[in-house]
Amino acid sequence: MGKEVRTDVETLRAADADRQKVADQLKLALDEGRLSLHEYDDRVRDAYAARTYKELLVLVSDLPRPGLSATDVAARRQAEKRREARRMPTALLVLWTIWASLTVVNLVVFGLVVATVDDPIYPWPVWMLVPGAALGAVTVGVQAIRSQRH
Question: Which residues form the DUF1707 domain (predicted)?
Fold first, then answer.
């Protein structure tokens, strides 16, 4: 068969403009005190010698975006950890979706029955509150356990 073509961005050839962007980012890192002059010289030399994006990305992988302080980086990491801790597990999301769907179906059917029958109708959709309350208690418990771990 023919030669396999890889489409990974990292394997693509870098252009002069890409090398210049990395060199500019390295200069900002030097100005912010993130790199020593020796590190800067080595990395700029490697940037201009780089042939692929992978070779360029390695040079800036340990640097935050220009203009970010260590406090900004730490705050973003903490915010991401808090967001992850609040995120509901997929199994619970599926259960809530199923419960909500069944509740909507029950309410629609109940509404249609009430609209078409003259006699008083027992409000059976109220029983959907029982599994909803149980699911709510499980969700609160799971989130409490997850927050204690973090």
Answer: 12-64
Distance CA 29, CA 27 (A): 5
pLDDT > 90: what percent of the chain?
49
* Summary mean pLDDT of the chain: 86
CA 74 to chain centre: 17
- For residue 52, the cross-strand partners are 13
pTM of the complete model: 0.48
Residues in the chain: 150
HEC states along the chain?
A: CCCCCCCCHHHCECCHHHHHHHHHHHHHHHHCCCCCHHHHHHHHHHHHHCCEHHHHHHHHCCCCCCCCCHHHHHHHHHHHHHHHHHCCCHHHHHHHHHHHHHHHHHHHHHHHHHHHCCCCCCCHHHHHHHHHHHHHHHHHHHHHHHHHHC
* pLDDT tens-place string over residues 61-97: 888 776 666 677 778 888 888 787 778 888 999 999 9
Q: Distances in Å between the alpha carbon of 28 and those of 22, 33, 73, 134?
A: 10, 9, 16, 55
